[in-house]
Amino acid sequence: MEKNFNLDVMRAIAITAVVLIHGSVNTFYMAPIDSVAWNITNLCYSLSRFCVPLFFMISAFLLIKEDMDIRAFVRRRLARLALPFLAWSLIYGVLKGDDVFSRHWLVDVLINGNAMVQLWFLYALIGLYLLMPLVSLIYYKGGRTFCLFYTVLTFLFSCTFPFLSDAFKITISFVGNMTLNNFNALVIFLFLPLLIKDIGFTRQRGWLALGLFILAVIVMFTGTRSVSLAAHAARETYYTYFYPPTVVASAALFYLMLNARFTFSPLIKQRLTSVAECSFGIFLAHMVVYLAVTRLININEKLIWPFASLLFSGVMFGITYLAVRYLRKLPYIRALF
After folding, report:
1. Whether pTM exceeds 0.85
2. Structural domain containing residue 278
């Protein structure tokens, strides 16, 4: 099994899903609730919410090792993110017309917020990098059982109970009283790939994983439709990355794709690998294309047509991919991607 290529396929699919979500956001919030365009977007959203968790799990799968030099690991990973983080924050600040040299921007945007919607990922990734050595210790020194125990606690108290409160207004007070809701919910995406890689693949498990993925997508789609109709406005409650529907969908897809046997032609493999190599740059840069297109052409009303957001997302992805693939070849500039 070509593990590295499987991870490349995951990256390619995940970054496509990221662009699809951001390219469809106007339709989700502007189209009439339960219209054809809105339901198509809701389905696309529900099918795509695995995207960021999949990136987190790929990082954990590749980076968490048994004997990690904490100092070297943290220094290397943070150094890799520092320049893109600062550069793209400045780029988006300038594009949005912010005063990037003001104290307000430095404190309220760069430190306490983010310069563009997708850059929250970098803040979260920095935090998860800092926690990876601890997760390594729990998994490799504490053992699989200890790791599973912590994963279950996180899933219950930081994922499931907040979801029940948010979606159904069910509050379980003893969780807060015992401070069991203080587990970092996103850490579950560091534990899951370590646990999943130890699960041997069988046809029955593959069908089970596929069934869980489909079930999670159905829950997201129907739940989002229900809460949005009740609120008379679009609601993303069921899309939250660390809520059970997304966690289950992401874990199931990771298991399936990690164990898949792809039989693509050499050309398709080359294209998928190229997209995977550009995925980080596409993640950072695609909103530049979004801002440019939406300023040149007033497309907001056009995006409420059925399938219009899919077309827009495809154009945004294609332009960004070609630009990033070219820019990654340039000295110095490549460090931003």
Report:
1. yes
2. 5-336
